[in-house]
Design goal:
With about 290 residues, the protein is an alpha+beta fold. The chain has helices at about 15-35, 55-70, 100-105, 175-190, 200-210, 225-235, 265-275, 275-285, and strands at about 40-45, 50-55, 75-80, 90-100, 110-120, 120-130, 135-140, 145, 150, 165, 195, 215-220, 240, 255-260.
């Protein structure tokens, strides 16, 4: 098997993965052009100057959708910017055309295209692609997780004081932000090696899967942020749940990804600062 650029790829067998790679390459060409030539950013919401979007996001998404629709015209697509078919569709593609838009806006080459295919609510395959660094993260259910042709595996430590923990901040800068900061403080008290905030959920998940971070959490994400990355973590031997230990839904949710050995300890810390009641109230009011 070769990837969409003709390079050797890991021994993964999936027609959906082949199409996902082609779509990621098409989106990557758009994103790389804007990254090189420049782009004007816009605010998604008038009162949130930090929630950005651009022509690059929209054109990348259309290029991705075109490839998927040509190959599978009856499949549904849930995409961040333009097309949001029902998440309950039997065959569903979930697309983030630029995960890490703020990094992209500031010319930081740490962002990715994320594409996943789900059948009856369960992930079949996923591609996460950084077109600037030419990094490919590929996974197929039951066939492992692969980073640039090498098999990925989570870390094997069960100690927080031997781990890095990654986290993310949602756009909310009120109670949820304060809860995240409080959780950071608690993790430092557990003597973690450090806290990292890279600003790209899909790549944070890949870092857990590749054994670089012991865990990653965020109190609010959209399905396109984690749809491919959660399978990448699971196929690398890790575990993904909500921040309260529940299975991940295909809707806005909290997320904790870990090497599985740290999961129980982290759930106790993370859920202490953002309770089920906090989460329900946030979703009701947003």
């Amino acid at each position: 098997m070769k990837d969409s650029a003709g390079q050797p790829a890991p021994p993964l067998e999936s027609a959906e993965l082949e199409v996902a790679m082609q779509a990621a390459r098409a989106g990557g060409e758009v994103v790389s052009r804007y990254y090189r030539d420049g782009v004007t950013m816009r605010h998604k919401q008038q009162d949130q100057s930090y929630n950005l979007v651009s022509d690059a996001d929209e054109e990348s998404e259309q290029a991705i959708i075109q490839v998927i629709s040509a190959a599978f015209p009856t499949h549904a697509i849930l995409a961040e910017e333009s097309r949001q078919d029902a998440a309950t569709a039997e065959m569903l593609w979930i697309v983030d055309p630029i995960d890490g838009t703020n990094n992209f806006a500031h010319s930081i080459p740490h962002f990715a295209i994320s594409i996943a295919c789900y059948r009856e609510g369960q992930p079949l395959c996923g591609v996460i692609y950084n077109p600037i660094r030419e990094d490919w993260y590929l996974t197929v259910r039951g066939q492992g997780a692969w980073f640039n042709g090498k098999r990925a595996a989570v870390s094997q430590t069960d100690r927080l004081d031997e781990s890095l923990v990654a986290l993310g901040f949602y756009y909310d800068r009120g109670q949820m932000m304060e809860a995240t900061l409080a959780t950071m403080r608690s993790l430092f008290q557990e003597k973690v090696h450090g806290i990292r905030r890279f600003g790209t959920a899909s790549l944070d998940l890949c870092q857990v899967a590749c054994g670089q971070a012991g865990a990653y959490f965020e109190y609010q994400l959209s399905p396109w942020d984690f749809a491919a990355g959660r399978l990448f973590v699971e196929e690398a031997g890790g575990l993904c749940t909500t921040c309260h230990g529940d299975p991940l839904p295909l809707q806005g949710t909290s997320l904790l990804a870990s090497n599985s050995l740290l999961h129980g300890t982290l759930l106790e810390i993370i859920s202490r600062h953002w309770t089920r009641e906090n989460s329900a109230a946030f979703l009701r009011d947003s």
